[in-house]
Amino acid sequence: MSIDLAPERSGSTTVERGSSGSAGAGTAVERGPAAYAAPGGTARPPLSPNALRRIVRDLAERPERWLHRVRLSAENRWYERLELAEDYEVWVISWLPGQSTGFHDHGGSRGAFTVALGELEELALAGPEHGLTVRRLSAGSERAFGPQYLHDVRNTAQGPAVTLHAYSPPLSEMSHYELRVGGLVKTSTEGAEQW
Ligand SMILES: [Fe+2]
Predict the structure, then answer these.
(1) φ and ψ at 75, to 5 degrees?
(2) Is 176 annotated as a binding residue?
(3) Compositional bias of type Low complexity: which residue ranges (predicted)?
């Protein structure tokens, strides 16, 4: 499957929040079902990217709620779910130098994340005229995005990083992509039971 190099829709945003180390999360695309069937059959609309950004921002400002949970793994990025609600979930992820996600989507979920500690780099396709966008995400940076967003996040810095993520609805699957001439090509999909 090929993905057109379409511009990011609905404004993905990056916010630098000074050098305090406090963080939050960012915004972008709208697609997919306006509502989904929550457990029990109740349809709840997903939270907006901005609402998810507020969740991770507030959490980043309360390190006592997550800092003691953080671990580092030389094998792969380390991650743990901090919260699971009907309509969203929250994860903490640690990144050692060199660790990265590769290009991936979020299975139709909206999302937001913030760099709570350290710094990362995000690659995203910004359209045929703009090509690949590379953003440095220092501590305090926020990103938020809609359901069609694809990106590759990597730690190209010298030290570890910690990020806080919120997704709505909770992630059900993620697909991975390779960047080839002409665009991104889907190479695999994993379900929630695989992480
Ligand atoms: Fe992601």
Answers:
(1) -75, -55
(2) no
(3) 18-45
